[in-house]
Amino acid sequence: MQPGADNGGMPDVTVVGSGPNGMAAAVTMARAGLTVEVFEREATIGGGARSLQLTLPGYLHDVGAAVHPMAFASPFFRSFELDRRVDFVVPEVSYAHPIGSGGGVAFHDLDRTAERLGVDGRAWRSLLRPLVDHIDDVTDFTGSQLLRIPRGPVTAARVGLRTIEQGTALWNTRFRGDFAAAMLSGVAAHSIGRMPSLPSAGVGLVLAAHAHARGWPIPVGGSQSIIDAMRDDLLAHGGVIHTGTDVSDVRDLPPAAVNLMDVAPRALASIGAGVLPDSYLRRMRSFRYGDGVAKVDFALNGPVPWTLPEARQAGTLHLGGDRAAIALAESEVAAGRHAADPYVLVSQPSLFDPSRAPATKHSLWAYIHVPRGSDRDPTADVIRMIERSAPGFRDLIEASTSMSAMQLEQYDPNLIGGDISIGALSLRQMVGRPVFSTRPWRTPRKGMYLASSATPPATGVHGLCGFYAARTALADVFNLPVPDLGISLR
Ligand SMILES: Cc1cc2nc3c(=O)[nH]c(=O)nc-3n(C[C@H](O)[C@H](O)[C@H](O)COP(=O)(O)OP(=O)(O)OC[C@H]3O[C@@H](n4cnc5c(N)ncnc54)[C@H](O)[C@@H]3O)c2cc1C
After folding, report:
1. Nearest CA to ligand 1 atom 35
2. Which among 5, 47, 263, 451 could disulfide-bond with 267, CB atoms 3.0 to 4.6 Å apart, if both were Cys?
3. Mean of the per-residue pLDDT values of the chain
């Protein structure tokens, strides 16, 4: 089909959903010269990367993602030159992991991190240095489908061997003290699930490598700035965005040659029920979802008084104690129970970006892991866990607002039961996401593609799922190459 062919004023491409992947797909298609219309059910665009005033006037909160290890690493964002379009601050401390009155500190600088770890410094350095030095090969290997020939086979093998070490019973053979092991488990826990496991170890190693490579940058103006940069580019290339439009049947959309779906497989099975074959619908319905998160946003009267001094300069913190305590909390959630001392992920963006709170005040973002579908308010758990490492925190709270796992699903139907990854990160679903195929973004319906993080390379704000879906559609339907993207994307 020819782009721009006269099709009665109808778009060449429709996109359902304006999350990071929907927007990345839309930008890619529009830059190829195609007419694109995006349909979003909410009043504002952004999905898991929206920023809104959730507590008091003057405080800006990230509703979904706050931590951005892929902002400088994603090949899509790099070719889109996101760092030229959005101001980022890279914290000197990527993440801290308080334990008791001490704890581990992952500086952006790997050597400084290793020096501070003392007895485990060498082990930390030897684990991560080969990955940090070849971070683009790490991203190539983990930033698309796993089953293909990687650009850097040696680095891929190193990631694989380290994943086996840290994802199996061998995991306690490397470190002698508590801090390094806890730091690695703190990043591995981003994947939500039992530990040790290969998926959690893989996620942890890659996140830890990014922390020391390009850092974990914080977008000025919130995650919404990333979405707004894509919106501006889409509109500049003639795209149209319809908000407040909940698509329940794909046949209600304007007829278009390509339809990119930034939705969960369960929703695809419903929206596409009239056009997709039964076997594919069954596969979409049997796709498995992971456990959930429950989130709290705080408006604070001052910065959090962490006992660990470096934590006061950290963009991100992981709470929950040592490696064994985090593994216990994660196994409780996996067994369908609320952990007594849950793992907590904390981001303190207002330390780096004054637009997040009034002068001298601060905003704080935190979530805990909970069983999928939980309706429990996490506020008391989060305050208790932070108080342990920052006594006096409670007295700084001017306001807070929370979302249980089920409220997150109501906010964005992609987050089934509070699963922020749009699908469990099991080994099976890391490889066959959502189907075993060389082009898992393609559906059996000609011109229809799944573009959400239920496809490779899965969760996170990187735009790659949407980009790969769009690239597949460009080749399949329009016989077009990827537009205007300077660096080689495989
Ligand atoms: C609380 C929370 C914290 C997170 N923290 C981080 C983090 O710190 N770092 C990180 O990298 N990632 C984080 N994530 C994950 C990240 O936000 C997601 O991986 C990412 O947003 C997925 O993008 P997506 O475009 O695939 O889907 P989504 O972001 O879910 O976007 C889908 C969009 O489609 C819309 N939609 C769905 N169905 C329909 C329909 N039928 N009709 C019209 N519109 C529809 C939704 O309203 C939504 O806007 C977090 C997510 C959440 C929720």
Report:
1. 17
2. 263
3. 96
Tell whether 122 and 205 lie within a shared domain. Answer: yes
Ligand 1 centroid to residue 64 C-alpha, Å? 7
Report CA(421)–ligand 1 centroid distance (Å). 8
Ligand 1: which atom is nearest the Cα of residue 465? 26
Domain boundary among 358, 382, 411: 411
SS3 letters across 133-147? CCHHHHHHHHCCCCC
Residue located via tokens 């290890």 = 69
Report the largest interatomic distance among the alpha carbons of the chain, rounded to a whole angstrom.
70
Range of the domain at 272: 13-52+222-286+421-478
Q: Is residue 275 part of a domain?
A: yes
218-271 pLDDT tens trace: 999 999 999 999 999 999 999 999 999 999 999 999 999 999 999 999 999 999
Residue 488, in any domain of the structure: no
Nearest partner of 343 among 121, 190, 181, 488, judged by Cα:
190
Render pLDDT for 177-214 as a digit per residue (tens, 0 to 9).
999 999 999 999 999 999 999 999 999 999 999 999 99
Q: Which residues line ligand 1 (CB under 6 A)?
A: 16-22, 39-42, 47-49, 64-67, 246-247, 262-263, 267, 271, 293, 295, 367, 408, 412-415, 420, 422, 452-453, 459-461, 465
Residue nearest to atom 51 of ligand 1 (CA): 64
Place of tokens 């485990």: 120
The tokens describing 326, both together, are 């985090």
